[in-house]
Amino acid sequence: MKRRHFGALLAGAVTALTAPIAFGTAAQAAECIAPANPGGGWDFTCRQIGKIMYDIGVVDEPIQVTNMAGGGGGLAFSHVVNERNDDPELIVAASQATATRLAQNAYGGATADQVRFVGAIGADPGVLVVAADSPYKTLGDLVEAVKKDPSAITFAGGSAVGGFDHLKVLMVLKKAGFDDIRSVKYIGLDGGADAITQVIGGHATVMTGDISEIVGFLKSGEVRALAVMTEERVPGFEQIPTAREQGFDVVAVNWRGLYIPKGVSDEVFNSWAERLKAVAESKEWQEAMRANGLAPFTKVGADFQNWVNQVIADTETLSREIGVIQ
Known about the structure:
Helix 1 (3-13) packs across helix 3 (74-83). The chain is globular, with a radius of gyration of 20 Å. The relative contact order is 0.17. It has 2 domains: 3-123 and 253-321, D-Maltodextrin-Binding Protein, domain 2 (3-Layer(aba) Sandwich); 124-246, Periplasmic binding protein-like II (D-Maltodextrin-Binding Protein, domain 2, 3-Layer(aba) Sandwich), CATH 3.40.190. Strand 1, helix 2 and strand 2 (64-67) form a beta-alpha-beta unit. It contains 11 helices and 10 strands. The protein is an alpha/beta fold. Strands 1, 2, 3, 4, 5, 6, 7, 8, 9 and 10 form a 10-stranded mixed sheet that branches. Residues 1-27 have low confidence and may be disordered.
């Protein structure tokens, strides 16, 4: 979608400002934009983080939530860049999908440096999963099989070709020194449940997705997780080794976080970073993560901005190699 289309969409696509998060009205409340309709990850991020910021006292008024669906997050991104570039009271929900779409130029020429990424405080970890009776017992076994005959291994994921589930696989193979990534067989399906069903049914070799999508299948013993793509093992799933500890330095998580307008001061940026860090350290957020299947993943401030920049650069490189972008 071209940038010029976002302005025309804006009037019809922005929902009315929702009621402040269960705490009454606030004349000068900060605002959190969820770049999608109510429900789902971005809406959860705004409502949970906003509520906890007020509960723990790092903001004086309840944070209001605006749902702004359109362009897979592109409409909200354009709105912030073009109309709210210096608004110090604005935060926007973001995730790995935001980074991937920016890397693949899905926002009509918009670039990541037009906003400031404040931080991420939770994530749905990426996983690679095989059927319980699969001959592949470790991530190394799988990688060696792909190297030997890429046509013999089929990966299935819940994102389209070039989406995050596809890229997770390619990241691991690149770290293993395998460069013929266009030879990797990937099937994009309508969600992780469809992908894991393909694996259980013997129609695909490996499911690539998020840990929240496989919990029930793990408990039933139908699948085995070869690796989780986090820095450390995930609490509650300690039996799943990380890709890193198996020799593949890949962290691939669907993080939950925020960005703010580019034109605000460093003081404003640091203030939002400190508030987000306070949420990450709160018992309220720990409870919210457990209730919603998220793993700890805290990167806040300049550290997170630098990390996102590298993720976007890596995603762009991979996307060009497989022909998603030119």
